[in-house]
Amino acid sequence: MFIQTEPMPDASRLKFFPGKEVYPAGTVEFANREEAAVSPLAQRLFDIPEVAAVAFGFDYLVITKNGGDWQHLKPAMLGTIMEHFMSDAPVMRPARKEPGSNAGETSELVAEILTSLRQVIDPELGYNIVDLGLIYDVAPGADGVTFVAMTTTTPGCPATNYLKQGVHERAGAVEGVTGVEVDLTYEPPWTPEMMSPEAKLHFGIDQ
Q: Which SMART domains does the protein's record reference (predicted)?
């Protein structure tokens, strides 16, 4: 994968062309990490301390730096962009929905996937990840590839890989699912308030 760059009139900004569609819907800009919560790619770029803003266009990205020299910053940015596109992760997350809010067959498929995901137990809390509130979104595509946005109770949780693997296996076991893409996010951070009423009752949390 070859990524071209192009200088801009504003020396603090640089345009990147990854040779792929980035944001076909038009243009969008993220001024901080909180705004970037809807984009796994933008979030990755904000992990670079010198990144001040990120914008997407049809086939390009514009990165604004808050300091440093482009010669030293570009390798990390290029590596981040390349890693993202090579992983086939989405540039933008689907709009978050409440489980079962889809219509028709898609709604039924989401319900089946959530039922299957309840078999994945958080080893620390001993309770299923759906009712713990660790599943943020389930979005089946028309081709059967299903996007699952999830979190863990704490960043760096030692059970992260175990839980992600469980999500892959249980979601992938549902009839009609042809593939599973799991996106781990900590935006918003998990809190016990995200538990289902049943989980809160189990843990003795006042509702």
A: Nfu_N
Q: Which CATH class is domain 4-86?
A: alpha beta
Q: Encoding tokens for residue 2?
A: 């070859």
Whether pTM > 0.70 for this model: the answer is no
β-partners of residue 127 are 122
Burial state string for 56-88 with b = 16 or more CB within 10 A and e = fewer than 16: bbeebbbbbbeeeebeebbeebbebbeebbeee
pLDDT per residue over 77-93, tens digit each? 999 999 988 887 788 87
Domain positions in the chain: 4-86, 104-203
Q: What are phi and psi of 119, to 5 degrees?
A: -85, -10
Q: Pairing state of beta strands 4-7 and 13-17?
A: antiparallel
d(CA 203, CA 125): 9
Residue among 160, 155, 147 at smallest CA distance from 190: 155
* Residues β-bridged to residue 14: 7, 63
